[in-house]
Amino acid sequence: MTVQTAGVPLERVAEFYIGGRWVAPSSTDVIDVVDSGTEEVYFSVAEAREADVSAAVGAARTAFDDGPWPRMTPGRRAEYLRAIGAAIAERAEDVAQLWTRESGIVVGAARAVLTSEVTGAYAYYADLADTFAFEEPATPSGGAGFGAIVREPVGVVGAIVPWNVPMSLIAFKLAPALLAGCTVVLKASPEAPGAALVMAEIAEQVGLPAGVLNVLTADREVSERLVRDPRVDKITFTGSTAAGKAIAGIMAERIGRYTLELGGKSAAVVLDDADVADAARVLAGAECFLTGQICGSLTRIIVPRHRHDEMVEGLAAAFSQVKVGDPFDPSVQMGPLATARQRARVEGYIGIGISEGATLASGGGRPPGLNRGWYVEPTVLANVDNSWRIAQEEIFGPVLTVIPARDEQDAVRIANDSPYGLNASVFTPDLDRALAVGRRLRSGTVGHNDNRADFGIGFGGFKQSGVGREGGVAGLLPYLENKTMVFEARPAGLGG
């Protein structure tokens, strides 16, 4: 096996982290990770086959059934979480470099996310060790004896993360799972395995007990073995709705637990009293983050018909000022898409939108002078009908569709006329009106005058945008099982 690692801030890429040690893969297969800004191979990693997945699951199963981790107090596990958070802070620049090259995020934005959201997630869940009720009394229905609800770890968790924001998504899966007492098999995406490999190095550095975290990289076919393995109690997955449906079907066969954070086609409902120029500036700016490769992007801009042209002009003007280019250039506001496949997808949808009858108001092609790298211009499509494919299907790139509405009621109808329900926002200066409209939107998150998706409180979707929540206390619950215990009297070893 030949792997390319020159200039890559990783120590081990030719092995998997299984059972607390680095182990040789079962085959010589490798995956090339390509720099999205240059189209050149950045580094190569070992590719897991079925035997490697089985070994990782076996290590996690042994660690859960026989190891110390599930039997530690939450407070003791929290100490490890704090150590992991501190280690990530120390490696933040390494992770930012990897994320930028793998997925195209502007490096300054990568640094900001890593130093706030990611490290904050581990601190948040560590703090829950002192405040969350892992045990609480419950009066038996007969009135006699002592009852309690004991919340115990669900077991072995298979965590599957995508390529767009890997370190953040790992944090909001791994931190609550570890606090709960679960053991984890972390499956990285083949496009962006760097963050998962950093986490493996950190697990070794902080002395996480053997088998508590196991890390490998595999493509979809082999990844399915992780989902089908009966030794895995729960799958937590972030990715496409199509893949989520397949996972749900497989897990249903054995009544396995799962959390799915899936796609979105999120609506910004701009009311007739909103400052349209300001809304356009906010929406255009948000869409540049990670080149629009965010499931919670507000890509359907629903605006009163009489203000449609004003919104289109504002968005087009804002996008015309965006500097697209090298994501390591501090003056650049938007980098490339992550892969050639992703750029082809975005360009394909732009063509579909125009063929459906949309007006191309801005962008639509590749930025001049950028002949290498998977770059695309931020794009505005106007006069869009909500029934068209570009308004119903997730594009996952910097493409905004502007949809005219007759009135407020029509705007709410349009916003809810979607198979998705992940994120939304209401633009109005009237707080009470924002609340009233927001309560009518079928969406897991509703913000006010901005994209306010918040993993710290809890994030997830209605309808085909997913099952369950990540972040906040709601993000801890799926890693726990409630056990009802009823005794003749209160045992000395039971809290409450």
UniProtKB/TrEMBL annotation:
Keywords: Oxidoreductase. Pfam families: Aldedh. This is Acyl-CoA reductase. It comes from the Bacteria. GO terms for molecular function: oxidoreductase activity, acting on the aldehyde or oxo group of donors, NAD or NADP as acceptor. Belongs to the aldehyde dehydrogenase family. Gene3D superfamilies: Aldehyde Dehydrogenase, Chain A, domain 1, Aldehyde Dehydrogenase, Chain A, domain 2. The active site is at 261.
